[in-house]
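Support reply, case 0932

Customer input (verbatim):
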Amino acid sequence: MKLEQSNLIVKRPHKEVYKCEEGIVKIFEKSHPKSDVLNEALNTARVEETGLEIPKVKSVTEIDGKWALIIEHKAGTTLEEMMKMDPENMTKYMDDFVELQLQIHSKKAPLLNKLKDKLTRQINGLKELDATARYDLLTRLESMPKHNKVCHGDFNPSNVIVGKNGKMTVVDWAHATQGNASADAAMTYLLFALKNQETADLYMNTFCKKSDTAKQYVQQWLPIVAAAQLTKDNELEKDFLMKWINVFDYQ
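Our regenerated output:
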């Protein structure tokens, strides 16, 4: 497979994403664990089986000695771009965004990894926090209700493709798990808050209203998911996330 640099869509530290005739090609760095690549393919296939309309995995292969995923291409514009170009309609876009997330949460995929197990591993592996802080977070996590709803794990407008007919498709299921929908919402809130607090507040209010969930309940998850996000080792986010991890007054 020949990939032209002009077809490069996204370049990240551990992967490059190209558009080609076969679809979307994600090529991972040689240092990226093979198990993570295979797990992303498996996650996507399991979410496909729920009936959600998502880009399907076409193949797992090697390109120039690097592992790669070939995924179905969905034409359109990201919801993030639409929000930036048309801020006056932000409330409408947010309504649609939350409705799409609730549609995801309505599904079950019993073979997906459990969100609670993933969060436990991430918190245990955090070197930035001392043993006392990790214990507090794990105690809080253990006390939270256990659910088995499909959770995207990185649900934000850049992962929503809007087609010309207005139909929305969710991409990038690398972090999908089954678990508590409010934990997934707390992560989405943090992703918004990292960029714009006003948009984050609009999201929180919209999600809680449409899902009939108490805002305090979603907020209880914030220190836990902030700790999970800290494991991505993004220096620009570190101070912001540490502030949330230190907030233990949402009781």
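We compared this against your earlier run and they match. Two observations from our side: The beta strands are 8-12, 15-20, 23-28, 57-63, 66-71, 77-78, 149-151, 160-162, 168-170, 177-179. The mean pLDDT is 93. Please reopen the case if you see a mismatch on your end.
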